[in-house]
């Protein structure tokens, strides 16, 4: 069995009590200037030496809502920080957190250990999906809650608005929703007066979509664009080279970007144990002028065999694996070229937006900012609404029936990232959207009580004419929003909503999906 080096363990363990007992360290926040990260106070360049850190992600057949928030596990942090320090870790990436939990113990201990965090804003069942993507009040509420919970910690390096949502040509239409989520999260941080915290995106290792996705998310107004770009790459396997692995090509592609780029996951495991031959190269002169470091995947071992250590569920015992020792040796040798913020003058500009012929996503307009007050006022005005007893699993059938019979009834909720067409209520939650289309259909059919039955799935209630603030809110929306329009689409494959890395057996939580044909405005067959 591979074990920790005793000297390192004793040295680190001796400090652990102090890490947890003391107040939060005055850790220097990380800021962005051009394509590099810097310590805010001393202006020294910051390179990510990271480890992906999340255990107990969803396994096949598991509960899509279930995940363990590692930053709420004080005992787990106490157990693992000494091992992370052995790996010279200065950053961990966490894929899902519970914004209602207490994170103070872990975040304090991490700060005192000089470790920053990159946190994904979504969760397995609340995140942007690649099939039937949307940007809704429910999603925005989740994102704001995570920001609110973590903005207080100076060792939050940044947030990811999405992970691997754009993974092939057919999923390019999700890009506007990622960009809208990024825009609104950044605006929320500014509105609340929080310190500047970057919001970025992590993409998968598919060169066919990489150029279009990265250009799209970086182009245009900086207020709408990502602040950094993470690349999940698994192309350097075993013995390889800078050229043969594709690292050279990717480095050349990103050399013109005006935001920090880094490897948000890496560590191919087709050859085991992994030797991490690429680690010294990432921090060498071949790459350190373009890339701001990397995050090795994954701390905890699981079904995909990507782990550096094994930890039994609920156990205080950690066993290091061969990968741990091999990575530890490689990361200990790195010495990237450091520049200072004062001596660095950015020269790159934002990318040009890709043509829709090559990347099928409209650069403008983006999905509107979800507004709960608009959605609530709209729903209050409806006469025909879903019955309380209707299972959300049956919503798709209702949407299909209404929109198959009356496409006009669904125009107000359409969201088409390819054409840039967004209904005025496309950002509302699923109950509100369903209520809207049922009510539109009811009135289109002559407002007969028969047309609000749907076999008991809908109920009539006294409609309320909007008044007061609701009247002005809905009037403003009607005057300013983009109407839905019909376009064509092909039936979708199974949803891909990767919150946790798919390599480790984590599967996407499936949000309630309005059928993709409806979202794209295509007439549907009755179900």
Low-confidence stretches: 1-22, 58-62, 482-498, 506-527
Integer count of domains? 2
Count of DSSP E strands?
Answer: 17
C-alpha geometry: elongated
Q: How confident is the prediction overall: mean pLDDT?
A: 87
Key traits:
527 residues, alpha/beta, 8-stranded parallel beta barrel, 3-stranded antiparallel β-sheet, 14 helices
Characterization of this structure:
This protein is α/β, with parallel strands linked by helices and 527 residues long. Helices cover 29% and strands 13% of the residues. It is built from 14 helices and 17 strands. It has an 8-stranded parallel barrel. A 3-stranded antiparallel β-sheet has the order 1-2-3, with no helix packed on it. A hairpin with a 5-residue loop joins strand 2 (36-39) and strand 3 (45-46). The termini are far apart.
């Amino acid at each position: 069995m591979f074990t920790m080096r005793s000297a390192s363990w004793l040295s680190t363990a001796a400090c652990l009590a102090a890490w947890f007992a003391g107040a939060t360290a005055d850790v220097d926040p990380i800021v962005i200037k051009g394509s590099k990260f810097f310590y805010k106070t001393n202006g020294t360049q910051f390179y990510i030496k990271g480890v992906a850190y999340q255990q107990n992600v969803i396994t096949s057949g598991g509960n899509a809502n279930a995940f363990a928030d590692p930053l709420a596990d004080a005992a787990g942090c106490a157990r693992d920080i000494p091992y992370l320090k052995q790996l010279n870790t200065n950053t961990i990436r966490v894929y899902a957190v519970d914004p209602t939990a207490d994170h103070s113990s872990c975040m304090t201990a991490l700060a005192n250990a000089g470790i920053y965090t990159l946190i994904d804003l979504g969760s397995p069942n609340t995140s942007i999906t690649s099939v039937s993507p949307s940007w809704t009040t429910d999603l925005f509420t989740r994102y704001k809650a995570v920001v609110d919970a973590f903005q207080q910690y100076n060792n939050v390096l940044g947030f990811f608005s999405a992970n691997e949502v754009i993974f092939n040509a057919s999923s390019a239409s999700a890009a506007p929703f990622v960009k809208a989520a990024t825009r609104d999260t950044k605006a929320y941080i500014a509105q609340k007066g929080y310190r500047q915290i970057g919001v970025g995106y992590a993409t998968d290792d598919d060169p066919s979509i990489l150029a279009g996705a990265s250009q799209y998310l970086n182009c245009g107004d900086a207020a709408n664009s990502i602040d950094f770009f993470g690349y999940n790459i698994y192309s350097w396997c075993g013995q390889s080279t800078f050229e043969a692995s594709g690292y050279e090509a990717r480095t050349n592609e990103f050399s013109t970007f005006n935001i920090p780029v880094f490897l948000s996951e890496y560590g191919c495991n087709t050859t085991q144990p992994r030797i991490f031959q690429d680690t010294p190269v990432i921090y060498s002169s071949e790459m350190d002028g373009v890339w701001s470091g990397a995050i090795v995947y994954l701390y905890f071992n699981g079904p995909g065999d990507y782990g550096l250590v094994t930890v039994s569920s609920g156990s205080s015992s950690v066993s290091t694996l061969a990968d741990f020792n091999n990575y530890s040796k490689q990361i200990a040798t790195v010495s990237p070229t450091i520049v200072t913020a004062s001596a660095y003058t950015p020269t790159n500009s934002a990318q040009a937006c890709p043509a829709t012929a090559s990347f099928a996503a409209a650069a403008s307009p983006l999905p509107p900012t979800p507004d709960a007050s608009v959605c609530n006022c709209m729903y209050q005005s409806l006469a025909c609404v879903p019955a309380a007893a209707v299972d959300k699993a049956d919503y798709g059938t209702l949407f299909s029936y209404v929109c198959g019979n009356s496409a006009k009834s669904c125009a107000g909720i359409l969201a088409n990232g390819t054409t840039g067409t967004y209904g005025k209520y496309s950002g509302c939650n699923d109950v509100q959207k369903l209520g809207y289309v049922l009510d539109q259909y009811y009135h289109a059919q002559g407002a007969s009580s028969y047309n609000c039955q749907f076999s008991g799935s809908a109920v009539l209630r006294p409609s309320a004419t909007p008044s007061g603030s609701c009247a002005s809110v809905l009037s403003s929306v009607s005057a300013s929003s983009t109407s839905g329009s019909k376009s064509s689409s092909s039936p979708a494959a199974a949803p891909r909503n990767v919150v946790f890395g798919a390599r480790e057996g984590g599967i996407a939580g499936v949000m309630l999906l309005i059928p993709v044909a409806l979202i794209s405005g295509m007439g549907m067959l009755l179900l």
